[in-house]
User: What shape does this take?
Amino acid sequence: MSDIREVSVDELRHLVSDRALSGETMLLNMGPQHPSTHGVLRLLLELDGEIVVNVVPDIGFLHTGVEKNMESKTYQKAEVMVDRLDYMNTVGNNLVYCLAFEKLAELDVPPRAQAIRVILAEIQRISSHLLWLGTSAMDIGAMSTFLYGMREREMAMDIFELVSGQRMMTTFIRPGGIWRDVPVEFEAAVRGFLKEMPRRIQEYEDLLLTNEIWLDRTKGIGVITQEECLQYSLSGPVLRATGLAHDLRKKQPYMGYDQYDFRIPTRTEGDVFARYRVRVEEMTESLKIIEQALNKLPVGPVKSNNRKYVPPPRAELGVNMEAMIHHFKIWTEGFKPPVGHVYTAAESPRGELGVYMESDGSGKPYRVHYVTPTFANLQAMPIMSRNQYIADLIGVIGSIDIVLGDADR
Amino acid sequence: MGLEQKAGSLGIVTTTLENVINWSRTNSMWPVLFGLACCAIEMMAAQSSHNDFSRFGMELNRASPRQSDLMFVAGRVSRKMAPVVRRLYDQMPAPKWVIAMGDCASCGGLFNNYAVLQGVDEIIPVDVYVSGCPPRPEALIHAVLTLHEKVKKNKLKEWA
Amino acid sequence: MSERLQNVIEKMHSEFEIEVETFRGENTLFVKAADLLNVMQALRDQHEFTQCMDVTAVDYYPAETGRFHVVYQLYSMPHNDRIQVRVRLDGNAPTIESVQGIYPGANWREREVYDLFGIIFNNHPDLRRIVMPQDWVGHPLRKDYPLGYEEVQFTFNFDEIMKNKPHPRD
Assistant: This one.
């Protein structure tokens, strides 16, 4: 533990306008424990009646010190901590870590592993959007969407459990490929998922798309323009809802995404309704990608052959001396990439997720920094919620799709 | 003996005061809506239709701690959040119980560093610990049933 | 490296004093702290690097000069290019200009670097801690800050650790 120092009021006075200091507007604390803040986010609201004059978000209630902790663990142990950052997109976090490591170490990934990674990442994207739809619709008032969304997530989590044994924090994607080959039932399970989902997405559309209450509560709320988005470095569905078709899967393709045929849904209004439509349409596009990847799934190995970074299969340990030595070195000292630093980015359901990885030649990362989309998106929240009612503020928070583990790290 | 045999069909049971109070406490424990991190997602999954919590009486999550009697500490408790957790616990009226869900709430879990409390039992007393990262909904339901058994063993002498 | 990036780097070389490094297809410009605002302004206005995706820092602890490297990741939306800008800072009282006026998105990121590394950003409108509690002392991500871990409890040291662990009163 460390010492405490006094924080005086003067340090925080610049956050509120003069009207609050004279008592004309009210300061309200929407605290870390609140049903609609999707995690532990504290908002300091300045209210003029019920209209929000200013919002000051206060994050850090979920700060886990992951970046410092990763500096004292080897690369494969540090990867396990990485799932828990953006806990709605666990496969995506592993994926970016492995992409950064593979760039740093110039490691190849066999095509079968790439296709399976794509399938899992897209299933994760769908399951993240389903939870987003469930919770944000529940906040706005449509309570039954939550139960429907969780029902579909169970199907996705069953696939993860089939493949890796864990429902959420799989750590299935490892540097050099994936952990092990998928079982025989994988294809049948994914095809079952693909068959069920379009009908369920249609169910959500029937519930919400032409619902007058939903339209009233989401159209024209929380508008942000494209210039503001670019100035604040927003990305993901928030940016696509303002008209710019920017998706890293198309612009800087990784993992073979350029072989698959899919489009990027965009809208121009930039309000809550536009973001809702963008995400629902993205779910349909993800289904297309999964189907194409599954149809073209190549046969072959699922791990790279580079024994410096990928542990050899156990069958070889009894017969081959080099395999034994590689196994020993990898599991005791960890693998050692060359000295240097890289920045790799991928598209998470919330936006651009990047990793800055710097290595000093030893088995432990020297610095790993996660550039998370929620951190950037939350910065623009005061802009989106100026002069709205408190009830609309809830809708705006839901539509940005925040996950506090992402923001606080 | 004779009275019970005759009056049983009238819908009368005889029991002790202790049993009745413990039974009524277990059958309608309302948790406070308090999810911190990844375990909160599994808590939500345990409450949705696939694994249903309502069949154990936990129909709703109350947003206000003053109207609830159970707190699931679901997720890692960071040092900035610790005073908030303690304040919420203090606001809950007695009788109250705490289930530390997941490895991070039980013992700090994966994160052994400056920013995470090594177990939420450093600040509030815990009744049941559930392990897992995150624990399966079935494990959480097992924890709730264990808590029910613990409550049923409560003695009248201790709190009267 | 694309042609456009090549031109950009040559132009920057001619206008400012920079060093260039290339590693795995990525380009890094080492800039002096005094030139930072001019470099950023030129990159944004003339070369169309519209977004600053990240501001972070790296601590090379035992080194006294050049102990901190502040790293900026820039992305150009119209041309789909990335470039990295690095500034070397010394160990005692590191200060640097804030680029928040040029890239408003760097506001919170600079607050995070201040919070975790202790690097002060001049002309930042709101420099206070963001992820640590407001009354915390120390800058956690520096290499001389301890990890703060608790020792693993085995049977031989069980009682010692239980004595030092805080317990609630009720």
User: Anything to note?
Assistant: The helical segments of chain B are 2-7, 17-27, 38-47, 82-91, 102-107, 137-152, 156-159. The beta strands of chain B are 31-32, 70-74, 97-101, 128-130.
